[in-house]
Design a protein that fits this description.
It is a single chain. The chain is α+β, with helices and mostly antiparallel strands and about 160 residues long. The protein has a single domain, classed as Sandwich (Jelly Rolls), CATH 2.60.120. About 15% of the residues lie in helices and about 55% in strands. It is built from one helix and eleven strands, in the order H-E-E-E-E-E-E-E-E-E-E-E. The strands form two sheets. Strands 3, 5, 6, 7, 9 and 11 form a six-stranded antiparallel β-sheet that branches. Strands 1, 2, 4, 8 and 10 form a five-stranded antiparallel β-sheet that branches. The longest helix is centred in the N-terminal third of the chain and has 24 residues. The N and C termini lie far apart (about 45 Å).
Length: about 160
């Protein structure tokens, strides 16, 4: 019985000691406001946040983005997405194309990007979208963004 109590106490202590470190490496941002973009020639922000890296230079940041997306229009219901960190395209640097199942219905879109070589200081993170076809409108709602790094600390 003493061994079980000791083991459970040690497990609880480890959870308490590591919880702050883990949460300092990941930021969770959510948004419920609907945002739309009717112009295929303009990138609109789905998310924009400024984060501050502390502790280490030459860091890698991973972005995990999830949203509900729909397209309205007449031709090919595609939405283009990209991620920028300090104005630089995150990897994959190519535009990611999302194809909702049909016009005027929300589908779930999930993407991941990363960028390495970031130093201590403030960095602007943007997730942008645009309808892929002129004449269509892209609409996003209820999205979330996770910003994660391997080591060090993130401050929002």
């Amino acid at each position: 019985m003493k061994h079980i109590v000791l083991l459970l106490s040690a497990a609880c202590l480890m959870m308490v000691l590591t919880a702050g470190v883990v949460s300092a490496k990941t930021l969770f941002i959510s948004e419920t406001t609907e945002v739309s973009n009717p112009d295929a020639t303009v990138w609109a922000d789905a998310f924009s946040a400024t984060v501050k890296l502390k502790t280490y230079n030459n860091q890698c940041i991973e972005l995990r983005f999830s949203t509900e997306a729909l397209t309205s229009g007449l031709d090919t219901p595609h939405i283009a997405f990209q991620a920028l960190i300090d104005g630089e395209l995150a990897n994959p640097a190519a535009t990611i194309m999302f194809e909702p199942s049909e016009f005027d219905f929300f589908d779930i879109a999930n993407f991941s990007w990363y960028l390495c070589g970031l130093n201590i200081g403030r960095h602007t993170v943007q997730i942008q979208f645009s309808p892929a076809v002129a004449g269509n409108e892209a609409v996003l709602r209820s999205g979330s963004l996770m910003i994660e790094m391997k080591s060090g600390r993130l401050v929002f």
